[in-house]
Amino acid sequence: MKIIAYLTAILGCLFRLACYVFLRVIPFTLAKYLLPPLYALHLLGLLLCTRKVNARAPNKEKSEHETSAKLESPTHLKTLFSRLYSILLCLPSPFHPLNWANLAVNTLLLAAAAEFAITPFFDKAQNVTFTRVGAIYANGAKIVVRYPSPSVEDSSVDVLWREVSNGTHWQQGPTANLSQHSDWVATVKVENLLPDTQYEYILVDSNRTTLPYPSHPIRFSTFPDSRLAGGGVFRFLVSSCVTPNFPYRGPLHRKAIPGFELLAQSLNLAPVSSSSQETQLGHARQSPVDFLLFLGDFIYADVPVYIGDKREAYRRLYRRNYQNIGFRSIYEHIPIFHTYDDHEVDVFHFSIWVVFNVHFIQIINNYMGEENDLKPPYPNAADAFRLYNANANYGSIDDGQFYYDFRRGDTAFFVMDTRRYRSGLQDPDFSTRSMLGEGQLTALLSWLSQVNHTAAFKFVVSSVPFTTLWLHDAQVDSWAGFPNERRLLLDAFHTVPNVIILSGDRHEFAAIAFNGDTPESHTVYEFSTSPLTPKSQDNVTRARMEVHGSEIREYIEVLPKEEVLKYLPIGNIKWSDIRVDTRNESQPLMYLNTFIDGRPSYNLTIKGSPLVKERPTAVEFSVTSTLRDMFCKFGLVPRQWL
């Protein structure tokens, strides 16, 4: 009897723990296989224990008499604590109401988990209407429109725009051609605008009748012309990874995305359709942020459960996010530039991988494209990402690619695609693996050469962390699993001043400083949302010379290769607020403020090296000879350089 009772309690506690993790910590897909059996086994244990108790009790009246006597005795307080203890630890009890209470608690938890898991199947969000601004140029901007018309197969919406300051008449803009085939989504570009100027736009039908949405104009500001001399100040946000109603808050919040809602609240933003007095007067709120960089996992195709690899299944997940009020408050005020990561594509799968000759079996979701665009479920996943997010990004230097670069004044950005071309795990020799592929690697290093003397700060954006300090599957999934390619890039980064890596994926924040092998090496910084070990295991030893009168002294410095400046693992909602100030060419500045659950948690100021405005002498080459030598060193010589 005791063995069954204890086993029942263990099963009940495991069930509640799994529910808590699934609903509040990690919505792991294995929950659909784990929770029902645990619930059923705990229920079976309760029934067995209850049957044995009933067999031992001669009659109900005696049991009730004993219960009444206990409650009237001086030890009734101890009895109450004992019963509470039974409920907390799922212990079977001879007092039947306690068993019913345990069953009720577990049933409610199972119902909550089921509601969270099946909501994506029923919440199709087919009628969501939205518009947002994507890529911003000095002379234009990309605009995304979704305006469904279920009664027809296709329709069109015109964009009218004007400059805000002088109140000019509306100018005819591009036409967004919408259809069922494209899920009523289209991306257009407004052109012939002035640099560093604020504009606004509305949507009209073919008769130039203003459409009911948006109820007030959407505003945006063009970027300054990067060809003109002089620095400036701007501010942008960095974040990643969102799932509706997670952490779980109940069925009334099934459309909520707490991270976006908290971010909108902190920026004092609301949808343009808000009924506030300010909006009614037609004065749209001016966002204090220039743009948002979203670093991947915008949708979770595989959690809490995988709803299928059909094209409509992926599109539905994007629509669910765009219907969220918090996100609407963001994208109606702030331009957003996207990349993607594994959860936009793949499902959980069993994987066998090898690290240092040790075999591991793990259930992971680390999508590896292997340069195969036909590999399921990539075609349908890429279709949805392209429609809703990628088409509004900047164009790639190579047609049809998701990696791209852009400039905001004298600051340059390169956004990588870390999934489409990454090697598989078949080869146990990780030194031969590539994350970027030859074409993207060439584009990145060519960009680095071009911006070396023309951009004060160079931001390299990766959906996965660049540091190697992660454990478990990150040793394969992050840049740690691509040692040769990573070392090539890091050597190149150390030769260029003011390189900063922005990464996501791991749901925690860390600031890393990469120190080079020589005093002339430029420090490279990474700001990532990922867990890691508290310090680097490898050091670099650098010698530097200083002249003191007629004496030359040598100093030896021992620094960690990857120095952890800050590690913040706690918190469900994280974003970084970055401000760049390049007005002083001799010392450009970058200010980082990281927020966790809406509260400032870490700040850092980086004093950059001065920008030396000179170009390489061998201008006929697409990259510098230094980068060419690095490629040769690692046996990587792109064909176009031969």
Fill in the keyword field for this structure.
single chain, 642 residues, alpha+beta, Purple Acid Phosphatase, chain A, domain 2, 7-stranded mixed beta sheet, 29% helix, globular
Give a structural overview.
Pfam families: PhoD. This is PhoD-like phosphatase metallophosphatase domain-containing protein. It comes from Agaricus bisporus var. burnettii (strain JB137-S8 / ATCC MYA-4627 / FGSC 10392). This protein has 642 residues and is α+β, with helices and mostly antiparallel strands. The protein has 14 helices and 24 strands. The strands form six sheets. Strands 13-14-15-16-18-17-21 form a seven-stranded mixed sheet, covered by helices on one side. A six-stranded mixed sheet has the order 10-9-8-22-23-24, with no helix packed on it. The chain has a four-stranded antiparallel sheet with strand order 4-3-6-7, with no helix packed on it. A hairpin with a 7-residue loop joins strand 22 and strand 23. The chain is globular, with a radius of gyration of 29 Å. 40% of the residues are buried. The C terminus is likely disordered.
